[in-house]
Prior knowledge:
The protein is α/β, with parallel strands linked by helices and 399 residues long. It has helices at 14-17, 36-46, 54-67, 78-88, 105-113, 135-138, 158-168, 222-229, 235-239, 259-270, 272-295, 322-334, 350-354, 363-369, 383-398, and strands spanning 71-75, 96-100, 117-121, 143-146, 171-175, 183-184, 187-188, 195-199, 212-216, 308-309, 315-318, 372-375.
Amino acid sequence: xxxxxxxxxxxxxxxxxxxxxxxxxxxxxxxxxxxxxxxxxxxxxxxxxxxxxxxxxxxxxxxxxxxxxxxxxxxxxxxxxxxxxxxxxxxxxxxxxxxxxxxxxxxxxxxxxxxxxxxxxxxxxxxxxxxxxxxxxxxxxxxxxxxxxxxxxxxxxxxxxxxxxxxxxxxxxxxxxxxxxxxxxxxxxxxxxxxxxxxxxxxxxxxxxxxxxxxxxxxxxxxxxxxxxxxxxxxxxxxxxxxxxxxxxxxxxxxxxxxxxxxxxxxxxxxxxxxxxxxxxxxxxxxxxxxxxxxxxxxxxxxxxxxxxxxxxxxxxxxxxxxxxxxxxxxxxxxxxxxxxxxxxxxxxxxxxxxxxxxxxxxxxxxxxxxxxxxxxxxxxxxxxxxxxxxxxxxxxxx
Length: 399
């Protein structure tokens, strides 16, 4: 044990305990699948490392063509893309944005930074996505937008959400951070609402370390989105020869992705089908290996509706209760397997309570967040390591 470190105790949070144990199977591992390193060298030789170079344009065009999205803007992160979306809404202080509490902090903080107030709605018990049947009751005169989060690469009920938004005159911004190359009724996630956001963080399906994209489906927002991304200037119009000089024309920030990141990402996008097929294989192996435990009601497996095409972003299991989840997590960590829980609900966070959301009753969110455990899933996870994970889960839940 490291000198000065405390001996692990049962009351230690699992996130502290696993940092003290050796790891045989990590939760995630960044990967190279093709010409990533050669592309970076090419970008360096080109003499342009800042954004909106050749690799940036290739990535944008590939995503636009594959997903049928009018305009894709590569960004430095999905958080940056969400912040851009919030700025495009022109939120006024006190304007409300409906979203799930079971999501990453960026979903809410992006809109809070723009002056909005998150209104948290419960999630569905099956997909863990925003419960579309709860949205109408959350709409007020101050509501401006709905932000569905496609958890684990499984689509929300977008037809119902779009109908609600249209009826109330609201904008839909899809948080598709986990859903690149996933579909809902044949439509690419991120390409259904007026705006959508992608993530290419190293924990996602297609990676470049840190990176993201804004999907602009409402073509009326394209010009302004370009301005917001480029520090509030009309530089893109200048580069296209549409204006004779560029200057500051709106509020914006430096949200442009680095050319180096896009050079790395380009190779991953070229191998999108291969990566997706590999993740599907890992997902199915988990499902087969743990099916008997699900049949014994010792755990619950992920649910994918028939009208959704998942990108197999993550594989989670739901245990009967929090105590059982934490016991299994500690046991797997002791085996050298880094299984992790997911979000602490935003409505119960210190900032959520500061914003007045602490008293919100979200029973499914509170229940699920305490029982969910994510198993390791990354591109080059070996079959032997995955079988080891499956065997140890089986052992700990049946012994």
